[in-house]
Amino acid sequence: MRIAELSRRTGVPIPTIKYYLREGLVPAGERTGPNQAQYGEAHVKRLKLARALVEVGGLSIASAREALRLMFSAGLSELDTIGKAQYAMTPAREYMEDEAWDEAVAEVDELIAKRGWRVKPANPARRTLADALATLRRLDQDDYFELLDSYAETAERLAADEIETVARRGDLDSVAEAVVVWTAVGDTVLASLRRLAQEDKSTRLLEGS
Amino acid sequence: MRIAELSRRTGVPIPTIKYYLREGLVPAGERTGPNQAQYGEAHVKRLKLARALVEVGGLSIASAREALRLMFSAGLSELDTIGKAQYAMTPAREYMEDEAWDEAVAEVDELIAKRGWRVKPANPARRTLADALATLRRLDQDDYFELLDSYAETAERLAADEIETVARRGDLDSVAEAVVVWTAVGDTVLASLRRLAQEDKSTRLLEGS
DNA sequence: GCAAGGCAGATAGCGTCACTATCCATAAAA
DNA sequence: TTTTATGGATAGTGACGCTATCTGCCTTGC
C-alpha cells in the first residue's frame, strides 16, 4: 500500500507519518522507484503502536523510538531486552538532592528489601519513586507513608496477574509487545480507575456524615 | 521575607517564581511599597505545592493553577469542590471516535455499574479510561481485558485506604490539599511500584524456565 | 549620606518539542 | 495527457515553560 492508505488505515495524517519515518519510529517502506515505496501490514501495526505510546502513554518521540527499537530488536532472545524496553519508557529527570532525597532513597531500598523484590539498581523507577516520596516529605504529607505498604502490596498483585497473563502468549515478540503496551497504557488505565474509585469512596463517606 | 529567601527556601529560581506569580500559581506578596512586597510561610507552602504538581505530577501550568485555585477556594465547604479539583487535574484530549471507542465507552459504563461505583458522568477519568481501552482494542491486545476486573478491584481497595487515611485529618483545607497532592504524586508512586514489581515477577518467571 | 546591590513589574526572548507546510522531481491515475 | 499523488529534503509553526533584560525604586552596609 502507499502512504495515503497507511494514513487512512491508522488515522495518522500523512505529514506526521513522514515525520515518524524521519524520526525512525516507523521503518522505511520497500522502495520500488526513485519516489515510490510500498508499505505493509507491519507498517500499519508499527504506526498504531507508535501513536499509542506517544498519545496515550505520553512518551516523547525519543523514548518511543527507543522502546520500539528494543521491542523489535533481533537480540530479543536475550531476556533482559524486555527489561531495557521498560527502562526506556521512564524519562530522565533531575532530582533535588537534599536530606529528603537521601531519606527517600533509603526508604525505597528498604521497601524493596522488605518485599524481597529483585530489582536491578539501574531500574529508573527507583529514582522516580524516591523523587515522589521526597516530594511528599517536603510537603509534610507524612500520613501518606502509612499507605506505602498497601500500595506495594497492590502493585505486587497487579504485576503478578500481568506477568501471568502475558506469559501465556507463545512467542517472545508478542510478549515484548504486550509488556511495552501494557506498561505505557496500563499506567493510564490504573490512574483512571483510581480516580473513579476515589470519587465513589469519597461520595459515600460524605454522604454518611 | 523577600523573594530571594523564598527562592532559597524552595529551591525555585527567582525568575520562575516571578513567572508563577504572573500565572497565578502563587498569590502576590503583601505590598509594602511601590516595588517591595513581603512573602510568608503560606507562600513557601503554596510554591512547593505548585512545583510538586508541575514537576512530579506533570500538570500543565494551567491545570496546576486551576487545581490550586479550587483547593484554596473559599467555598470549599461545598463538598464537591474537592471533586472539581480532581477533575482539573485530568488534561483534556481529543479522542478518535470509531467503533473501538464506542465499545470502550460502553465497557467503562458497564464496569462502573458492575462495581456499583457512583461516579458523575462528567468525571473526565471516564473518557481517559475509555480512550486507553479503545487503544488497546485497536492494537489487538484482547487478553489485557481479562485483567480489568483485577485492576478495578485493586483501584477500589487503594481508594478505600486513601480516603480512610485522609478522612482522619481534621480540617477540610488539609483534606483538600491531601487529595490533590496524593492524586498527582500518587499516580507516580503507583506507576513506579508497578514497574519495580514487574521486574521482580518477570525475573522470577524467566529464572524458573 | 551615598554607592552598591536587591526588588517588583513589564516586556521580550529562548530552547525544546511535536508536528505541519512547502517545494521538487518523478510516478501513477484519470 | 492532464491531473493528482509520492518520497525526500528543508523550513516554518505554535504551544509551552521558562529565562533575560530593563526601569525606576528601595534597602543595606559603610
From TrEMBL, chains A, B:
InterPro entries: DNA-bd_dom_put_sf, MerR-type_HTH_dom, MerR_fam. Residues 1-70 form the HTH merR-type domain. Transmembrane segments: none annotated. SUPFAM superfamilies: Putative DNA-binding domain. Keywords: DNA-binding. GO terms for molecular function: DNA binding; DNA-binding transcription factor activity. The keyword Membrane does not apply. This is MerR family transcriptional regulator. It comes from Planotetraspora silvatica.
